[in-house]
Design goal:
The chain has 110 residues and is mostly helical. Helix content is 73%, strand content 0%. The model has no long low-confidence stretch (mean pLDDT 94).
Length: 110
């Protein structure tokens, strides 16, 4: 639904998935990305991306933690929280020193 910009349906589906499986990291990550893409519910995006980071990457096919830090940094940027964004991008680089997305974002924030 997110790719089709049907955000309301995506939010409903993902919130239900979280209710059914509250320890399922991918649902939290996807909800965070949906909120970020829609620029709606940014507080929920922050919350769900933090939960994803707390739960950790549970399977190899899930997004890496450095990417979740980058997405969290984008949320902070949208909220005009540059110091928090910088910290998120730095955390991404700690997870993956090769992260071009984190490096570029830090450069942009200078």
């Amino acid at each position: 639904y997110r790719q089709e910009q049907r955000y309301g349906e995506a939010f409903d589906l993902l919130e239900n998935a979280i209710k059914l499986a509250p320890r399922s990291a991918p649902a939290y990550y996807e909800l965070g990305l949906t909120a970020l893409a829609s620029r709606q519910r940014l507080d929920r995006a922050e919350q769900t991306l933090r939960i994803y980071l707390m739960l950790g990457q549970q399977e190899a096919n899930q997004p890496p933690l450095d990417d979740a830090h980058v997405q969290l940094g984008k949320v902070y940027e949208l909220e005009h929280r540059k110091d928090d964004a910088r910290s998120a991008y730095q955390a991404a680089l700690m997870q993956n020193p090769q992260s071009e997305a984190a490096r570029e974002a830090l450069q942009r924030l200078r």
